[in-house]
Amino acid sequence: MNYTDLQVVIKEVCGQSACSRCKKKYLESDINIVGTTKNEAVFMAHCPCGTNAIVNVSVKRKQANITPHERQWDPINNKITLNEVLDMHNFLTNFDGDLQNVFK
Ligand SMILES: [Zn+2]
Q: Which of 20, 43, 88, 93 is most buried when burial is the number of CB atoms within 10 A of its CB?
């Protein structure tokens, strides 16, 4: 995902996502990019209330070269299961900080 795509996606995340605790919508300055692939992005949203959230966005492209107005994106809003939380805990426990290896 290039810089232009990320800007569009982050604006959409801010417009449609809110803190699960205080319900405040995120500002662009609250969003940090964890990593991206061609059609997905993972963000860490830091709310001023102290709550953090991981936001995963999948982008569906209609064609190879598209303008920002032609993009469609859908946030992944599935409920997180206990096993997914445990998997992430185990992943983070063993994570060495090398993001390049994570997104290979
Ligand atoms: Zn909050």
A: 43
Q: Is 28 helix (H, G, I), strand (E, B) or coil?
A: helix
Query: How many A from CA of 18 to the centre of ligand 1?
Result: 8
If you measure from the C-alpha of residue 51 to the centroid of ligand 1, how many angstroms do you get, rounded to a whole number?
5
> Looking up tokens 């997905």, which residue turns up?
40
* Rounded-to-integer distance, Cα 49 and Cα 18, Å: 12
How far away, in angstroms, is 33 Cα from ligand 1 center?
Answer: 18
User: Which tens digits make up the pLDDT trace of 46-98?
Assistant: 999 999 999 988 887 665 554 555 555 566 666 778 888 898 888 888 888 88
Q: Structure pTM?
A: 0.57
71 Cα to the center of ligand 1, angstroms: 28
Centroid of ligand 1 to alpha carbon of 60 (angstroms) = 29
- Whether residue 1 is predicted with pLDDT greater than 90 in this model: the reply is no
